[in-house]
């Protein structure tokens, strides 16, 4: 097996995550799909790191994880405050800039 | 003797080069099995209706990705993936699902007509583009991480983080602190009016004149005392008031009215048999008789 297969898997997972972002309307599930896309990118970075024989790809994947953790904290806080003001976690209901 | 060791080392370097450009059979088997499961988990994430199921499928996919990191020589990242992603981030997701998802049933009605098909079409095109791009790319021979990981994976990463990427690392720390403060600011809510005391709540209830006594308890006689079983009214219909609002919103109320009526009919049947009276018509005869009596009056 060629290590390029990991890249194909990463592309597939990224596409599935993008599809989820487009078709789901529950904000939490949309957010999970974004996480899936980030993970697919990480897999591609790790596979590239192996192909090139240096650790820079793994460093980038590490930074992606840190940024994803920060993003999850802020994003979930936004979802919780949206739910408090609108009593719904659907992205359709948050269609106005004001409450 | 030296020729033998030369050929041995040559063979060893050959196998190293081979292992770098292709992978072992074991890894191939692992890739195809776990890769299939990962894709199925990702599909379940976007297809499951309830957010909790999506979160669990995504956690499974992330664990498999951690195994792939380990197989690719990223030992530190594999462990971090399990600890940070499946341990912290997914549990945070589950926590928010519990907090938010009381009415979590995602409606399947499309708000924009044909959006789902268009989205699927776009995703198909995007995936085809991505995969075609990878297959056309000339990636060259794979080197493998043997030399990079020679002094240990964690040591290699640490050397890079604290020399080449030290500024990015410091900025990441600032980002994390900002995110933590931001989350606290976003979820903190200043209470604008005084919280109602128990006495004020009781007085308001009297003023409104609804449900002065406590709400009726759930359950049917002594047979079902579970909180999700609605109590039955005298005519056999379940009463909404007896179950908690949360269970009603989730649609988790168990209806035992039919069962209870059948039990009652069977009980009457048995007692009439024992007393030697004529057998009553089975089933819902009791309710029919009650209706007739009402009509007569």
TrEMBL record, chain A:
It comes from Streptomyces mutabilis. The gene is nuoK. This is NADH-quinone oxidoreductase subunit K. It catalyses: a quinone + NADH + 5 H(+)(in) = a quinol + NAD(+) + 4 H(+)(out). The lineage of its organism: Bacteria, Bacillati, Actinomycetota, Actinomycetes, Kitasatosporales. GO terms for cellular component: NADH dehydrogenase complex; plasma membrane. It comes from the Bacteria. NDH-1 is composed of 14 different subunits. Subunits NuoA, H, J, K, L, M, N constitute the membrane sector of the complex. Pfam families: Oxidored_q2 (PF00420). The chain crosses the membrane at residues 6-23, 28-48, 60-83.
UniProtKB/TrEMBL annotation, chain B:
The chain crosses the membrane at residues 29-48, 55-76, 82-105, 117-137, 157-186. Coiled coil: none annotated. It is an enzyme of class 7 (translocase). InterPro entries: NADH_UbQ/plastoQ_OxRdtase_su6, Nuo/plastoQ_OxRdtase_6_NuoJ. Pfam families: Oxidored_q3. It is found in: Cell membrane. Keywords: Cell membrane, Membrane, NAD, Oxidoreductase, Quinone, Transmembrane, Transmembrane helix. It is a multi-pass membrane protein. Its main location: membrane. Its EC number is 7.1.1.-. GO terms for molecular function: oxidoreductase activity. Residues 268-297 are annotated as: Disordered. Gene3D superfamilies: NADH-ubiquinone/plastoquinone oxidoreductase chain 6, subunit NuoJ. It catalyses: a quinone + NADH + 5 H(+)(in) = a quinol + NAD(+) + 4 H(+)(out). The keyword Cell membrane applies. NDH-1 shuttles electrons from NADH, via FMN and iron-sulfur (Fe-S) centers, to quinones in the respiratory chain. Couples the redox reaction to proton translocation (for every two electrons transferred, four hydrogen ions are translocated across the cytoplasmic membrane), and thus conserves the redox energy in a proton gradient. Belongs to the complex I subunit 6 family. This is NADH-quinone oxidoreductase subunit J. It comes from Streptomyces lichenis.
